[in-house]
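User: I'm putting together a teaching handout on how multi-component assemblies are represented. Below are the sequence lines for each component of a complex, exactly as they appear in our records. Could you produce the 3D structure of the whole assembly as structure tokens, so the students can see both representations side by side? Please keep the chain order the same as the input.
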Amino acid sequence: MSTTLTTCCPPLVLQHLSPAEAEQLAAMFRVLGDPSRLQLLSLIASQPTGAACVCELIEPLGLSQPTVSHHLKVLFEAGFLTKERRGTWMYYRVVPQTVQSLCVALTTPANE
Amino acid sequence: MSTTLTTCCPPLVLQHLSPAEAEQLAAMFRVLGDPSRLQLLSLIASQPTGAACVCELIEPLGLSQPTVSHHLKVLFEAGFLTKERRGTWMYYRVVPQTVQSLCVALTTPANE
DNA sequence: AGCCTATATCGAAAGCTGTCAATATATGAG
DNA sequence: CTCATATATTGACAGCTTTCGATATAGGCT
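Assistant: Of course. Below is the structure of the complete assembly, with chains in the same order as your input.
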């Protein structure tokens, strides 16, 4: 529908948040509230293919492999990433809709 | 250039984040990563005048006065709120540009 | 089968965060 | 000045998070 245009850009702010909605939204922002996870999203999104396996992400982040896996799990469970096996490797990919939905939540008067 | 129009709506994701930029951005999301703070933003933004004093926010949140003051301070220091004295009362107001800047960071290829 | 590599999970330590009661500060009224 | 009210600060505690090393799981190769 044509709602996407009107809900995206105007600098409004979320309204009428129920406690449950607030908790849900906060959980999403909490996932983005870590610099390592933001760098993971950034790194994965900037791959030419749009996908990256874990071993490609460890060195640029400067964290241990278990820690990187942990962050990827958090991002995956929040819906910011998809994962797909290819042999031994696991390829992660950003889900732009999830990112955008946060944007919409921030700028929409929460109608409908 | 005409970057503002092209960088706002498409569902892209942040790219080329330096560690320092990631930490800065994450700090902003961390502020939004708490349900009480989201409810505060929501409550203040939905006031007819656009402003609210602390005593109006305590009861709807169901938290103690010091806790509400604490969250308001966090939001204020991150640039999400302005505050203004009126007699004994302190009136807080949402800064829409701060909210929107996060949106832009999420959907922009980080050019310029 | 056995080995190697890639990823995930476990358990623990250190640090951060949300919350409150108690207290401090500040403004206005009398 | 004194009192009452509104807001901010302090100190402490409980719970959560980030991180790691150690270990487990899974897939491919010989």
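A couple of points students might notice: Residues 1-11 of chain B have pLDDT under 50 and may be disordered. Residues 30, 34, 36, 63-64, 66-67, 70-71, 85, 87-89 of chain B lie near DNA strand C (CB under 10 Å from a C1').
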